[in-house]
Design a protein that fits this description.
This protein is an alpha+beta fold. It has 2 domains: 2-157, no CATH class; 179-367, Nucleotide cyclase, GGDEF domain (Alpha-Beta Plaits), CATH 3.30.70. The chain has helices spanning 12-34, 38-59, 64-82, 84-105, 116-164, 170-174, 197-227, 252-268, 306-317, 327-333; strands spanning 181-194, 230-235, 238-243, 271-273, 276-277, 280-294, 300-304, 323-326, 339-347, 351-358. Strand 2 and strand 3 (238-243) form a beta hairpin. The N and C termini lie far apart (95 Å).
Length: 381
């Protein structure tokens, strides 16, 4: 563009402006790279480009071809960046630049050197550029909307997986690992179920039963997330959770004991009626388990093994409003929690096992059974 303008049309100041225009793209690029907000930096650079268009037009004495070249480039950038709205903003900055540079350098027009045909050709080019820029802007907006929709779906997919699988398992699923199977040498399993659930569900009906379980298990889930306990599954009125798998958890027997106390509190505030609240019973056992993703269509993360079976059978021997723990768990938590011996029970496939009552911290002293209370006969599973 400089070569197209004769030397007598460019004063020393105009040559200085031309040199600045050559350096400005590099300055703008550096400003964008060093900015914490790249989008804001691009907005600033775009408006600055159009403001500098005024001095550029004056420097070239408003000759059509060099001036139009700059206008076309700026118009394309504004349309691609923000559409029609940003194009009008850019034109406003261009007008300010024209006014400022005209006041500083004056106007040196040479309309006789540029015939009408050139002017009309330039108008046609600008019109075509506006059309192309508008189409490109719409395509860019469509691409942006598509990308935003994909990001929303990705977040929804992530949230759905987080509701179904433990967080530690999700990256392995996404990586295509199959099968997902782990062994955990030391975890604490807790089972809880609603006492007299069958007659309760018959009394409440299907809708009332679902609403009750949703309210109860929602409180259970909040307590599990707070204490670092991993919910595994719900089966009807039963709730299974694990401390120490699939992510390790320090002092998981104590964390599960704390979780049991939270479950009783959740049941206490979950109302069946104005005068009745939910009653639950709990069984806890500590030992090794296996874990993995089971199934192909409706797959789910499961834990299984003797520890899970024992915890389930201990829970079946518990009483309403009480938590029964195995001897193994008792040895890990008795130094921090109040427990009372329940006695020896017979477990199907496991023989005799000593068990203890875990006393809820929220229970009143007079409501706790004394150490000499005779437990009811143990049921044989």
């Amino acid at each position: 563009m400089l070569a197209s303008v004769s030397d007598d049309h460019l004063s020393r100041e105009r040559w200085g402006l031309a040199a600045f225009f050559v350096a400005w793209p590099h300055i703008a690029y550096w400003l964008a790279r060093t900015s914490n907000d790249v989008n804001r930096a691009e907005q600033r650079n775009l408006l600055t480009d159009f403001f500098l268009g005024g001095p550029m037009a004056v420097a070239f004495s408003f000759q059509l071809w060099p001036t139009t070249t700059f206008f076309v480039i700026g118009m394309i950038n504004s349309l691609l960046f923000g559409g029609i709205r940003w194009m009008f903003r850019a034109w406003t900055m261009l007008g300010l630049g024209l006014v400022a540079s005209t006041a500083l350098f004056g106007i040196n027009l040479h309309p006789d050197s540029e015939p009408l045909t050139i002017f009309l050709s330039i108008i046609a080019i600008i019109s075509y550029v506006v059309f192309i820029g508008s189409v490109a802007y719409r395509l860019r907006m469509r691409q942006r909307d598509t990308r935003a929709a994909l990001e929303r779906e990705e977040r929804n997919s992530q949230a759905l997986l987080a509701n179904v699988f433990p967080e530690a398992v999700i990256p392995r699923l996404r990586a295509g690992e199959s099968p997902i199977a782990d062994q955990f040498a030391d975890v604490t399993v807790i089972f809880a179920d609603v006492v007299e659930f069958t007659p309760l569900s018959e009394r409440l009906g299907p809708k009332g039963t679902v609403l009750l379980l949703n309210d109860l298990f929602r409180r259970f889930d909040h307590a599990a997330a707070k204490l670092g306990i991993e919910k595994i599954e719900t089966t009807g009125d039963g709730y299974l959770a694990v401390g120490g798998a699939p992510l390790p958890l320090d002092n998981h027997p104590e964390a599960v004991a704390e979780f049991a106390d939270a479950l009783f509190e959740a049941a206490r505030v979950t109302a069946v009626s104005e005068s009745e609240h939910v009653q639950i019973r709990i069984g806890i056992h500590t030992g090794p388990v296996f874990g993995g993703v089971i199934g192909e269509s409706r797959f789910h993360y499961k834990v299984f093994g003797e520890t899970v079976n024992i915890a389930s059978r201990i829970q079946a021997q518990s009483r309403p409003g009480r938590a029964l723990v195995s001897e193994t768990t008792y040895k890990r938590i008795h130094h921090r929690y109040a427990l009372e011996e329940h006695g020896t029970i017979e477990l199907k496939g496991h023989g005799a096992m000593r068990t203890h009552w875990l006393l809820p911290r929220s229970s009143k002293p007079e409501s706790r059974p004394s150490a000499g209370e005779t437990p009811p006969p143990a049921r044989v599973e």
